[in-house]
Amino acid sequence: MLRSNGLSLKEINDKWKETAIYDYKPITERTFNRYKNDIAGYFGIDIEYSARSYSIINKEAIANNALYRYLLGAFHVRALNTLAIKHRDRVMLQDIPQGVEHLSVILKAIDEGKTVSFFYQSYFSTEKRDKLNVIPCFVRMFEGRWYLIAEYLNRSKTWVYALERMQEVSVGTSKLKCLPKNNPEDYYMGCFGIIRDDRKPALIKLKAYDQQVDYLRSIPLHSSQEEIETQPGYSVFSYYLRPSYDFMQKILWHREKVEILEPASVREEMKKLIEEMLKKYITGKHP
Fold first, then answer.
1. What is the pLDDT of residues 175-228, one digit of tens each?
2. 123-158 b/e with 16+ CB inside 10 Å = b?
3. How far apart are the first and last CA of the chain?
4. What is the pTM of this model?
5. CA 53 from chain center: how many Å?
């Protein structure tokens, strides 16, 4: 329905039969109308009936919402599970991110307006395991990993915790809600990834060469991406974001196919980073 201009009830049932969760029961008009109302109530997605077909009238509600797109993608995978198992020798997957099992507990704490407690072992302190009790604000997925953004109980600091570093996660007993300012949009405004440092967002210009141009067109680095110059063999893209550690890391992922043009300070930072890498390969010495 999302990829069509409308489907009749017969066409909906035909597609229903093709799914892995088909229970051999046809969807009646009365049943579908109930589903339609539930979808509108829970997700704000409106389906109307006109000219003997059903269609989504606010498709932008899905297109502009990252959570809806993620859930829709997960549903597509679930619908393929029977075929995927049948042809498991022809399907390659990455491992499911560790820590995903903690999501339901954390979301329950958010839903109930309570704290969440867990043992946490930082990457920077492999021997020490801390017992933490924090106010959960929201969760975020980035580069296939889940994170919790939470406030200290005294609200002195907001911190980011990787779910795979957590153990013994439970809903706390204290009723505390996160401050309104610590919502996903405001907290990560101008950020590239999971790191939110003190640097201010800047207009960054990136030159991409050859096939990397089409790659960036199809998979933008950031929501602020704009193609501002197009020439044979290269294009220039602009971004408005904080040049954080994970942004520089992502630029390096593109190897020699991209080049930071502006601002000069960020270009110089990347230049020094590459020089340090080159020094290790030339001398073989490590700090």
1. 999 999 999 999 999 999 999 888 899 999 999 999 999 999 999 999 999 999
2. eeeeeeeeebbbbbbbbbbeeeebbbbbbeeeeeeb
3. 58
4. 0.73
5. 33
Same domain, 25 and 72: yes
CA distances from 85 to 73, 81, 91, 95 (A): 18, 6, 9, 16
**CA separation for the pair 24, 5 (Å, rounded):** 26
Dist. CA 201–CA 169, nearest whole Å: 35
- CA 210 – CA 214 distance, rounded (Å): 8
Tell me, rounded to whole angstroms, the distance of Cα 152 from its chain centroid.
24
Whether residue 190 is contained in a domain is answered as no
Q: What value does the CA radius of gyration of the chain take, rounded to a whole number of Å?
A: 24
Strand ranges, E, within 176-283:
202-209, 226-231, 234-241, 258-262
Q: Are residues 80 and 28 in the same domain?
A: yes
**Token pair listed for 256:** 């020699």
Residue 187 lies in a domain: no
